[in-house]
Amino acid sequence: MTRGRDEEQLLETITELLGDPAHDHNPLREPLARLLELSTAQRERLERLIRISDGFHEIAREEKRGLAEECDTHLRRLERLVRISDRYQESLRELSESLREAALHDPLTGLGNRRYLVERLEAELERCRRNGAPLSLGVLDVDYFKAVNDRLGHERGDRLLCHISDLLADQLREYDLCGRWGGEEFVLVLPETTAEEAKAICDRLRRTIRDTPTPADLAVDRITVSIGISTTEEDPDGSYSAAIDRADRRMLVAKEAGRDRVCGPSL
Asked: Is residue 109 part of a domain?
């Protein structure tokens, strides 16, 4: 028999004794009645505590469920934010790459611009010095471009520059670099190339530009270029700007000599 059942039988026995008139004058009746009253009150208190405790636990369980659901909601929001942040970061990276690409390329011809050429020239100079290899470069200027531009207009002049840049990009070797230095002037970077090799390459480019027909609607029969060359063989420890200056001066010499020609160093 369980403890609860024993207590219930004991209470029933006491209640029967107290209700029996034969024990009305028993000296223990009053203390027993008082104990029964206290026991009943205590049981009521315990039952109330149990009900309160059950209610408390139920509220706690509901709060836990509510907290768990709220936590799940926040976690889902954070996951979405992370996904959005990843996409945002990727978009920023793509935008940054696009902006850098735009900052390094000439918007008209699509070739590298002056900034691009300076960065690559510095890197190529350092690489060639480490490898003990020569580096040559050419400064190419379109002959009589100002007169052509004034006669045809800027829109056709721009198209003529694009025509020349396409020929340069098509004719240069895979590892050569070509960019628009400014206006009608282009710079050619020829890694691991001696002055004599650079002269042959630039002369081939000159003849290709002269002999390739221009688009008919440009109304230009023939276009020629003058090219000046410099090389690290002249000054192995010199700066890129010094090399550009030497090539630029030789390009002017080629123009003064009648244009449509290449002028390089005499080594």
From this structure: no
